[in-house]
Amino acid sequence: MTTGMKLKQFLLHEKRAGVDLPYDLIELIHEVSITCKEIAATVSRGELSGVLGVAGSENVQGETQKELDIITNDIMADHLSVSGLVAGMGSEEIDDPIDVPSKERGEYLLMFDPLDGSSNIDVNISVGTIFSVLKAPLGCKETPKLDDYLQKGIEQKAAGFVVYGPSTVFVLTTGQGVHMFTLDSTIGEFVLTTEGVSIPEETTEYAINMANRRFWEEPMKQYIEDCQLGEDGPLGKRYNMRWVASMVAEVYRILIRGGIFMYPYDNRDPSKAGKLRLMYEANPMGFIIEQAGGMASTGHGRIMEVDSTGLHQRVPVVLGSAAEVRKVEEYHSKAEKVA
Ligand code: P6P
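== Fructose-1,6-bisphosphatase class 1 ==
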């Protein structure tokens, strides 16, 4: 009987049951969960915190930073840099890798988006924290070089996200399926509420920002047009649409009831391969989706096989129910054959 176990208790239980889970990885996941509890408390204060709104700065992406983007980044970076568990970190909010004092270095690299969907924070819509754990190639002996971070998604040792919504839920994979832990604020613990998440193979629900339609490539335009034709069109079924503008909320919904989430390439800025970032959005979410039986694609191939060329590299994202992701890939492959 595992439901009701606390996060660390469950991970230790998994290790005793034979799952390959090093103690320092369990500790790292536990420390990340502590920072997310602090972020949950900060975010839930809303206007009371006095830190809603913009910070008057931009991140490396050229995006306006919210006060809370910076506050939550500092919560994670400050806490983890003295945990003795990471050799270095990469954050959406910081241009370069975050080094860790030599006496505090550990065996892992932590990539994170401390407050994904933060454009929603001022309007009280769910936001979240996304994280990805890689092994530090040089271990704790030296400061990691940029190249040490540039690993494919298949190298991830763990990935997860926390959605700060009506409830706060910690979603985790270490390569042994996907499990969900709901924050019980009466005891201040993430408690196991769903063990072994499985995404339905089929769906009739798609999530995409339709405002960008005129900027998409033809295969994406055609797929969405066919979705909108419903049961009278080539896809032969009626679809519904959602767009929260918060990836963690979309992915959580897909884990619960299926669906497909797309942020495809668009030509608003041809120099950018997509909007979402590979290392701390697409790869961790891709790991989770695949471990729950779904697919995570660029539209042309598996996200977790994409070569990493930079800490803030962007990539097109099509993820969710496997049968629907395969359809989108077919639209792209047919277009390539015709071209
Ligand atoms: P748009 C949030 O900024 C984010 O990175 C994802 O969480 C979300 O899915 C997407 O961007 C929303 O983008 O262009 O609709 O605001």
